[in-house]
Amino acid sequence: MTSMAEATARLQQVAATGPTAVLADAFATAGFELSLVGGPVRDALLGRATSDLDYTTDARADDILAIVRPLSDAQWDVGREFGTIACRIDGETVEVTTYRADVYDGVTRKPEVTFGDDLADDLVRRDFTVNAMALQLVARTDGGVERIAPRLVDVGGGLEHLLASTIDTPQAPEVSFRDDPLRMLRAARFEAQLGFHVADRVRDAMADAAATIQNISAERVRDELVKLLSTPDPTGGLRLLTDSGILDHVLPEVPALRLEVDEHAHHKDVYEHSLTVLLQGIALEGSRNPGAAPDVVSRLAGLLHDIGKPATRRVEGNAVTFYNHDVIGSRLAAKRLKALRFDNDTVKAVARLVELHLRFYGYMDASWTDAAVRRYVRDAGPLLERLHILTRSDVTTRNRRKAERLDFAYDDLEHRIAELAEQEELDAMRPDLDGEQIMAILGIGPSRAVGEAYRMLLDARIEHGPLEREHAERLLREWWAARAAD
Fold it and tell me: Which residues are in the HD/PDEase domain (predicted)?
């Protein structure tokens, strides 16, 4: 925010344009209150682009649907149970929700939905003061329900907290987090998303209530974690979750990276290294794929790539080793992401990237053969671009000469990949004979042997490059004869 006058002007503009003005007139005519609420109000005050327009009203779901149906070209009532009706007006999707007064018992994972009749009561139950402000458009007055000059309703000091860049709660934070422990993850996300700091009392309450995050379903935790990782810099939010002890219950492999550093056997601070890799990977995402949506797979891989180190840490003389931490880390990543209910494609992709993240370092020892480059591409498959980003972002050494040498080596590897791709169509690498041809040459039907022959020919393709049909057929017959002899 810059000045109150500018903030007021922004709110007035939001109130007068798009679906807001249309809805305000319709709800006033129908005799119900209406306010723009939450994120859109916050973002308008901050001068950020407003999206995901949310409104709140004293109307119930059936009344909301009756009001918006003539105004919109589509409606969705999947949130009717919670008093929410979504619709599309002038190309924008909006949601209108009945005032809420939810009750949580602190144990179950979902609130008991209770509807309210008062805007102030609805705002007080919201998560943070910066999200608990409303721009009231239609209000009950002595003369009935009227369209009014838009006014800001702020019951918890949200405007003051916006000016101070502070995340705080409308109620006592221990009450707010007891009501819905997911709000602790949201605090970390908003710290990262808005660049704000979390109030001391909120931090203390998060630490005290850390274990209650286990009362929240894995799906809700996953979704909030994804939102955090999708911010331009999630590291501040992750540190908050680590320091408060919440990440011990959500993603315990990450705080476990804070390995004790032996005064004689030195190694990097793996926790800080991982946060740096995550941040460097985000920067590379932006430079290599400008304008693309945040790549959560890449970000998870950057954060989790070294989680196998605690289990593989060994002290050898004056050094610490982590042999096979890539393989162990891959298994740990898959197990954790499955527990968080990530989809199978994400689980497999992140685990594979963790497994492959050290593969490049063999390139530093000696120049790779064409066959080795082909294997690198084959093993990465569709994850090659993400592997490029992870491997490059994994360089966090303060030794500039070493960093430049690693960067030059990877430049060379990418150049080699590009050259071979142009010559041999690496992206579509296949054996020189397909399954039908293999069966015809060997005179066999579909079987495990066909798959074995296919893999043998693919290995030959990787080792030697494209083969002439006659050469490939000879290799196949020789392999088949040797197999039969065994």
Answer: 266-408
CA distance 148 to 136: 8
Model confidence pLDDT, tens digit, residues 205-247: 999 999 999 999 999 999 999 999 999 999 999 999 999 999 9
- H/E element holding 93? strand 92-98
Own/partner contacts of 363-372, CB < 8 Å, gap of 24 or more, are 363/409, 363/410, 363/412, 363/413, 364/405, 364/406, 364/409, 368/413, 368/416, 370/416, 370/420, 370/465, 371/462, 371/463, 371/464
pLDDT over 90 at 467, yes or no: no
Which letter does DSSP use for residue 387 in this model? Answer: H
Of the candidates 30, 26, 25, 49, the one whose C-alpha atom is nearest the C-alpha of residue 39 is 49
Let me know the angle formed at the C-alpha of 292 by 291 and 296, rounded to the nearest 5 degrees.
140
The answer to whether 182 and 221 have CB atoms below 8 angstroms apart is yes
Pairing mode, strands 53-57 and 34-37: antiparallel
Q: Which two tokens stand for residue 266?
A: 């030195």
Amino acid at 471: H
Provide the whole-model pTM: 0.84
In this structure, is the dihedral angle defined by the CA atoms of residues 136, 140, 142 and 145, taken in order, positive or negative?
positive
Q: Quick one: which of 301, 303, 304, 323 has its CA closest to 387? A: 301
